[in-house]
Structures are given as C-alpha cells and as structure tokens.
Amino acid sequence: MRLLIIEDDKYLSDSICETVKELFEPEQAFDGEEGLFLAEQNIFDVIILDIMLPSMNGYEVLQNLRKQNITTPVIMLTAKDGIDDKIQGFKVGADDYLVKPFHREELLLRLEAMVRRSGGLLKENVITFKELKLNIKNKTAEIQGEILKLNGKQFDLLEYLINNKNAILTKEQIFDRIWGFESDTSMTVVEVYASNLRKNLKKYGYDHYIKTFRGLGYMLTDNGE
Amino acid sequence: MRLLIIEDDKYLSDSICETVKELFEPEQAFDGEEGLFLAEQNIFDVIILDIMLPSMNGYEVLQNLRKQNITTPVIMLTAKDGIDDKIQGFKVGADDYLVKPFHREELLLRLEAMVRRSGGLLKENVITFKELKLNIKNKTAEIQGEILKLNGKQFDLLEYLINNKNAILTKEQIFDRIWGFESDTSMTVVEVYASNLRKNLKKYGYDHYIKTFRGLGYMLTDNGE
DNA sequence: TTTTTTTAAGGTTGATTTAAGGTTGACCCT
DNA sequence: AGGGTCAACCTTAAATCAACCTTAAAAAAA
Predict the structure, then answer these.
(1) Which residues of B touch A103 (CB under 8 A)?
(2) What is the pTM of this model?
(3) Which residue among B113, B137, B151 places its CB closest to the CB of A90?
(4) CA distance B32 to B54
(5) How confident is the model at residue B122 (pLDDT cuts 50, 70, 90)?
(6) Cα A170 from Cα A183, distance rounded (Å)
(7) Where is the OmpR/PhoB-type domain (chains A, B) (predicted)?
(8) What top-level class would CATH report for the domain B126-220?
(9) Which one is predicted more confidently, A198 or A149?
(10) A153 Cβ contacts chain D strand, under 7 Å
(11) CATH class of the structural domain B2-123
(12) Which of B138, B140, B151, B178 to mutate to test the interface with A (most CBs of A within 10 A)?
C-alpha cells in the first residue's frame, strides 16, 4: 500500500509518515506541482492532500487529477474549518476531509476506512490467488504445497497482479509501480518479467491465468475460459 | 438509491429526509432494533446511523450488521465530539462519521462521495445496448451471457456507436475519433471495420442494428426497422 | 562467485491496412 | 417502366506492421 503525502509543512509531513508507516509505504511531496506530478503516475493507493500549498493549491491539484480520470482516493487536509472549504473539496472529488489539528488515530482510521471502501485491502502478510500463496513479509511464494522460488521483481510483479486481479494493468502502470517511473531502464523489461513469471508458473498450470491484452496490458484472472 | 436513516430524533430525521430527497429514497427507523431489522433486509445503498438510540445503540447495530457480512456503507452520526467515539465507530466498520450539528450540504456531499466510492463509479465502466454489455475498463464485451471477443478498434467502434445510439455518425466522425484525424490511412478502413463488427454480431442477430445511411454514415438503433 | 537485472536480437502472433472485385441503390435516359 | 451507369458501400483475403514473446548474453549487484 503506497501513500502519497502532499504537505508543505515538513514537520507535519514527517509526523504523518511516522504515524502510518506500519500500514503504508509513504512518499512525500512538498508543493503542489511536485505532488501533482507524483500523483499523476497513478501508482498510489491513497493520497493525503493539504489545501494551502506553494506553487499550486490542493484544489487545483485534485481537480487536475480527476480531469485525468485518476481516481485514487484523496483525503483533504486543512487548517481552515469553514464548511465552504469542505464543500469545495468534495465537489472537486475528494473522498474525505480532515481538519488540522487532528488526532493521529483518527487519521489512521480514516485511511483504513478509505482503503477498505475502495476495495483495497490493508497490508496483509499473505495474499492468495487460487492455490497460490504469497507471504509478503518474507517474500516467499507457495503453490500447491510446494515452495516456489521467485526473485525480487518477479515476486513484486506477481504481488501487483494478484492485488489487482481481474483488472487490466498497463505496462506503464506495472513499470511505474515496480521499477519507478523515473527509472531509465526500458519498458521491455516488463515483458521479460512477464515471460519469466509465466515460465515459473507453467509447471503448475498457472501461466494461463496471466493474460495479455494486446495494446492494453496484462491481467491476472481466475474466471475460466 | 435507497437510504436508511436510523435516528430517534424525529425532527432531525425528517429534516434529513428533506435534505436528501433529491438524490435518495429515504426510509426511517426510530430505534436501534427497528433499524437493525430494516438494515438486515440488505436493500439499502447507504445507511445513516445515530449512536445514541433507544433499545440498541448504534455501535451494536453496526457490529451486528457487519457480523452478518452486510457491507452497506454506513455514516455514523453523533452529538458527541470525542475522538474515542470516532475510533469505536470506525473499528466496528463505519465508513464515515459526522458530528452533530452538521451542515446539510456536508451531509449531502459525504453521501455522494460514499456512493461514488462504493460502486457508483463501477456503473460508468459498463455501457449497454439491449443485451450487449461493454466493460470499458477491461475492454471486454458480453452478449446474451457469452463473452464476445473484439479486437481493439472493433471494440472502440462499438463503444462509439453505443454511446451515440440513434444518432447518425459520419464516416469522418468515426475515422477522426478512432484513427485520429491526422492518420494517413484510407477512410475505407471504417467500412472494413463496420463489416467485421457486423460479422461478429451476426451470430447473435445484432448485425441488423447497425444501419448504414448512404452518403451520410452509420447509426446504431434499437427501434425496429 | 552466484544471483539478479537489463539489454539486445530474432521469432511469433495477431491486429491493421491495402487492394480488388462484388453489391446495392440512386439517378438519368430513352 | 425498364435498363444502364455510376458512386457508395460491402466483403474477403493477402500483405504489412507493430506488439509481444523468448532466449541468451552482458552488466550489475549481492
């Protein structure tokens, strides 16, 4: 679970990081433009967005995102308490709202509720797909009783696929998520890893479940065909 | 959209009804047990739940519901302002929280955000024409229960036609939309794709619905002949 | 060293485009 | 009305092209 914090108050931002680090991998942006740029990568599970920001305010960031059909859940954060702000925030597409100062526990709970609502699961130690079990913590995979050896990025890919089963993931998304959007390696690595992953799953007949959609991306699916 | 309001203050309950009646069909319950009974029917899209209630408090109602795997989104409502209440509410599975007194507009916006999150969005990912369903996200088509395989541009064409059913689309429009107006391929591809699409729909008797208007363009229509 | 990651190259598949010949229907002429 | 002509459209199949797969070797990391 990746969380983007767009907040110019470094002290507050760090403190949020600290608060959530059990459940999320946080990333920080300290002004509006930087935040928008990062959010546009569309690789985060939740975004915490302050309203008063240098270079571009929170509303603009959010509006911009929604215009691009990026639907990552957003929690707006502000010192202002007026209802007008709340209304504006929701109109632009925020999913929740938190008034500073807030209790850490409340933030955590709202984050959880948010992620739960949007179908995601909080960081679990074990995720499964049919008879395939991934232990996120030790990065081990088990299938039909046997232990399956997967190296780092292959594991990450499989994890990402399982967490988004029955949804198409574009090569861009996969690349941005696993290699990082600023990585300068070529996007064809994704194909190579898809290939390797399939090879490893073939033994168990699970390679079929990774479907490629030409021009669109990949999907892990369990509904037959 | 059906909304259940579980709130013992009749005046407040009525006033909520009034506020939301544009967007929801509200139903009222005035104590915990009645509310639980109604909620158990699992026919509502959202529930507004007060905490202080006769016969059974809001936490118990919610806990009970979740235990039965009823996941209707719930907004908790209370006069208490302490963080402890919020925590308890979220722990039991509330999806949002509102402190009395609240602005009507805020309630409305939270309701909208809630519904949007819990599948309101999903509906926009699917468009239909008679028994034909297109899932825009997965780019899959389903007709009369069967899955229909369409390649990229065929799918795009069908999507465009469905979104403009009962309106004539010129070949230029179709071409510009799907191939891009700067494309240097010949406009006759549109005919080829119309042909292929019809061939694929023929099996289900849906080819007739794509009518060509000589000199004008194509139209997808569902009113007979 | 051993393992993992990245690059490079050639092969495969299937979508897209072109081309060619066949239909259809509008319009004109006698 | 009937027949001829033509342009628009349909259909098919072959040619082309881009996306993707696979493999193996090179580079980097452990």
Answers:
(1) 83
(2) 0.63
(3) B113
(4) 6
(5) very low
(6) 17
(7) 124-222
(8) mainly alpha
(9) A198
(10) no
(11) alpha beta
(12) B138
- CA–CA separation, B56 and B74 (whole Å): 16
pLDDT tens for each residue of A27-41? 999 999 999 988 887
Torsion of CA A169, A170, A172, A176, to 10 degrees: 0
Q: Where is average pLDDT lowest: A47-51, B63-67, B217-221?
A: B63-67
The closest of B23, B207, B10, B195 to B115, measured between CA atoms, is: B23
Q: Report the CATH fold assignment for A2-117.
A: Rossmann fold (3.40.50)
B20-49 pLDDT, tens digit per residue, is: 877 788 899 999 999 999 988 777 889 999
Gap from A152 CA to C8 C1', in Å? 23
**Mean of the per-residue pLDDT values of chain A:** 85
* Residue range(s) occupied by CATH 3.40.50.2300 in chain A: 2-117
β-strands A217-220, B74-78 pairing: unpaired
Q: Which chain B residue lies closest to A86 (C-alpha atoms)?
A: B106
Class of residue A192 by CB neighbours under 10 A (exposed 0-12, middle 13-18, buried 19+): exposed
Chain D positions within 7 A of any protein Cβ atom are 8-13, 19-24
**Which amino acid appears at position A159 of this protein?**
E
Q: Residue B142: enclosing H or E segment and its boundaries?
A: strand B140-143
